[in-house]
């Protein structure tokens, strides 16, 4: 007789996530608390002292993690957009092999709509708060945004190759239209009128119809 497989136990062990180091956990808490303060009180009205008090640490300790309020804002925006890109790419990667660009676009759009709706005011405010960033934070944030735009540009160019998207469509402009169209979903989204899934599907249909060959 075959021995019983021990794979389940190994799988369980593999799924265990390592605990965050104390410094990483503190940094994460600072970012979460700061994002909440920025949402409720606004960026300009929130001071480093306010953040330190809300986190439960001395102001001097806060500067150990972030040199300025601008650095805090940049970290929040960068982390958010990196997590956004990762979720969208993962959703697309889980589609069956040979999935059409139209289906990839649909999935990416629906996931993006969900992320923006769940992000609340920070998603809509991110573009507005960019003016508060100085160098090098501004350029760093710009590079993260370019990576997000590049995802859509790559998908649009893939569609050109498969014949699903018009070849003469400027991919740079088209990607910015797609990103810009969804940026402010959080400002008007009302789940009493439509689910976020329905809104995502509507965006996917409207946007792809404008792109397709």
Can you describe this structure?
There is one protein chain. Helix content is 73%, strand content 0%. With 213 residues, the chain is mainly α. It folds into two domains: 21-66, Orthogonal Bundle (Arc Repressor Mutant, subunit A), CATH 1.10.10.60; 71-211, Tetracycline Repressor, domain 2 (Orthogonal Bundle), CATH 1.10.357. Helix 2 crosses helix 3 (48-55), helix 6 packs across helix 11 and helix 8 (137-162) packs across helix 9. The longest helix has 26 residues, at 137-162. The chain is elongated and about 60 Å long. The model is unreliable at 1-16 (pLDDT under 50).
What is the average per-residue confidence, as pLDDT, rounded to a whole number? 85
Total number of β-strand segments?
Answer: 0
From the spread of the alpha carbons, the general shape counts as elongated
CATH superfamily of the largest domain: Tetracycline Repressor, domain 2
What is the terminal-to-terminal distance?
Answer: 59 Å
Unreliable runs? 1-16
- Strand and helix order: HHHHHHHHHHH
Set out the fold topology.
Layout: H1 7-15, H2 22-41, H3 48-55, H4 59-65, H5 69-93, H6 101-119, H7 121-129, H8 137-162, H9 171-183, H10 185-188, H11 196-211
In short:
The chain is mainly alpha-helical and 213 residues long. The chain has 11 helices and no strands. The protein folds into 2 domains: 46 residues, Homeodomain-like (Arc Repressor Mutant, subunit A, Orthogonal Bundle); 141 residues, Tetracycline Repressor, domain 2, CATH 1.10.357.
């Amino acid at each position: 007789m075959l021995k019983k497989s021990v794979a389940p136990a190994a799988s369980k062990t593999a799924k265990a996530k390592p605990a965050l180091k104390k410094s990483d956990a503190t940094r994460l808490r600072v970012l979460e608390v700061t994002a909440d303060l920025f949402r409720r009180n606004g960026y300009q009205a929130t001071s480093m002292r306010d953040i330190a008090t809300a986190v439960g640490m001395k102001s001097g300790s806060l500067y150990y993690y972030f040199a300025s309020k601008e650095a805090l804002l940049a970290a929040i925006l960068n982390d958010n957009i990196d997590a956004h890109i990762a979720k969208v790419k993962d959703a697309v990667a889980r589609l069956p092999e040979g999935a059409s660009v139209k289906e990839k676009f649909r999935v990416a759009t629906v996931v993006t709509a969900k992320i923006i709706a769940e992000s609340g005011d920070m998603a809509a405010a991110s573009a507005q708060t960019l003016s508060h960033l100085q160098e090098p934070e501004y350029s760093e944030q710009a590079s993260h945004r370019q990576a997000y735009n590049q995802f859509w540009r790559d998908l649009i160019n893939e569609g050109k190759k498969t014949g699903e998207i018009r070849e003469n469509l400027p991919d740079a402009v088209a990607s910015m239209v797609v990103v810009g169209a969804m940026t402010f979903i959080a400002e008007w989204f009302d789940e009493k009128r439509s689910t976020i899934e329905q809104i995502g599907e509507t965006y996917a249909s409207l946007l792809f119809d404008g792109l397709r060959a």
